[in-house]
Write a structure and sequence with these properties.
single chain, 448 residues, Immunoglobulin-like, Rossmann fold, 5-stranded antiparallel β-sheet
């Protein structure tokens, strides 16, 4: 019985209308002292308010389970993307209700205003949809769903608590990966900014002999087949397959820098997942290496069923470390683990020319064995500073230093190119499209 009364009081909330009515009742009682003609009007008003309150209590509490709510969430969330979630609600009261909902989202989102208001007729149900954008990989713990119900009188609210506690893992951006996968399969990558690369020559992997159509390279005419068929026939070639593509991810402190909520490491992981998936769709073999002060994960190149899931699980567990990158260990791993010439895409970050020069000897050694592509990031905050007007000497000094660092980034690109190392300098938000562009360019030019 004690628990019954405790639950009753804990779940009972007084509404704004009730406080307004009580305030109006107090004013009427005060006025009755000065205006005798008011008589018993304040008393009638007060008892009418109490009667409405009693009716409201009966309406809300005569049904044990007046509403039902359930969270509809995916099995996992995609990092850096807007994930769709929903709350299913149903009204079992014999009258229409006003409903307020609170979903106890994980603390990582810091959402303190996630309040949904709706109205439901008797026996009606609705789905309330909303979106969440996680910015860190890991496990996110959701809590209960709280439903605050009001009858048409709206003097009080009754709270229902639905135990919906669950833990959802946040994986690298598989939504982005699926988007690129669909477009790659349908050869529509140009719709999202991936360039169509003009082929230089053709690969040596023969596909078929087909009829000549205007636009075909006349150098591919098969004269023997033409003589036999009596019609012009050409040799059709396709991209070379089963080439190895390795993504190397730097997990050192240089990759901790945030951009729009996500760290550079998360941008690199999301781009790696999308790029390796496209490479596997192009029938190349995809591999992965992570490195910081020591070697992390090493996933051999493969394209068999289940390999993408293996890459996803490995990338999900990677975290930033706070020491310098051990390039000597990386060179030893590349030398020992990768036996044939491959495309190596190294996601890292250089903030100064001196930082690049410390790693340059090992980058040159790796470039002698494989086709090395170094990907690093523009500092968008410094770019914002350079675009702002300078109002005093201090602003001029800050802008000058910012422009110096941005110029050093361009010098890094030139220095890498001088030693035959290809590089990409891009905004974090454009990383995935830029990396896939470069991969397709390298495939088209048959540089591997």
């Amino acid at each position: 019985m004690k628990n019954l009364y405790t639950n009753f009081y804990q779940n009972l909330f007084l509404g704004g209308r009730l406080f307004f009515g009580l305030g109006l009742s107090v004013i009427l009682f005060l006025l009755s002292f000065f205006f005798s003609w008011m008589g018993d009007v304040p008393l009638f008003f007060f008892w009418a308010l109490l009667l409405l309150l009693l009716i409201d209590l009966v309406l809300l509490y005569r049904t044990k389970n007046g509403v039902f709510a359930r969270r509809n969430a995916p099995e996992r969330l995609s990092n850096g993307d807007e994930n769709d979630l929903g709350i299913y609600v149903e009204n079992f009261y014999p009258f229409a209700i006003n409903l307020g909902l609170i979903d106890e989202t994980p603390f990582q989102f810091q959402k303190r205003d996630l309040w949904f208001k709706t109205s439901l007729k008797s026996r009606e149900h609705k789905m309330i949809n909303y979106q969440l954008r996680p910015t860190k990989r890991g496990e996110y713990e959701f809590g209960d769903i709280l439903a605050y119900v009001q009858s048409p009188i709206k003097l009080i609210s009754r709270r229902y608590t639905f135990e919906q506690a669950e833990v959802l893992p946040v994986y690298p951006s598989f939504l982005q990966m699926q988007q690129y996968e669909l477009l790659a399969v349908s050869n529509r990558l140009t719709e999202i900014g991936v360039k169509k690369i003009r082929r230089i020559g053709h690969s040596m992997e023969f596909e078929q002999i087909k009829n000549y159509v205007p636009g075909d390279d006349y150098r591919t005419i098969n004269w023997k087949a033409t003589a036999r068929k009596g019609d012009t026939m050409v040799n059709a070639f396709t991209d070379e397959k089963s080439q190895q593509v390795f993504c190397i991810i730097d997990k050192s402190r240089a990759m901790k820098m945030p951009f729009e909520g996500l760290s550079l490491l998360d941008y690199a992981i999301n781009a790696t997942l999308a790029l390796l998936n496209v490479a596997m769709l192009k029938e190349d073999r995809a591999g992965l290496i992570t490195v910081s002060e020591k070697i992390g994960a090493v996933v051999p190149a493969d394209r068999r069923s289940g390999h993408l899931h293996k890459l996803l699980q490995v990338l999900h567990k990677e975290k930033t470390r706070y020491l310098e990158t051990n390039m000597e260990a990386l060179y030893g791993t590349v030398r020992g683990a990768i036996k044939q010439r491959s495309l190596l895409i190294f996601f890292t970050n250089f903030e100064s020319l001196a930082a690049m020069e410390r790693q340059l000897p090992f980058l040159r050694k790796i470039a002698r064995l494989h086709l090395l592509l170094v990907v690093f990031f523009k500092n968008t905050e410094l770019e914002k500073i350079t675009r702002e007007p300078a109002n005093d000497v201090e602003d001029i000094y800050i802008k000058t230093i910012a422009e110096k660092f941005l110029y050093e980034k361009k010098l890094i690109v030139k220095e890498l190119n001088r030693f035959g190392i290809q590089s990409i300098l891009c905004d974090p938000k454009d990383l995935t499209v830029t990396a896939i562009n470069k991969y397709l360019d390298i495939k088209a030019r048959q540089q591997i």
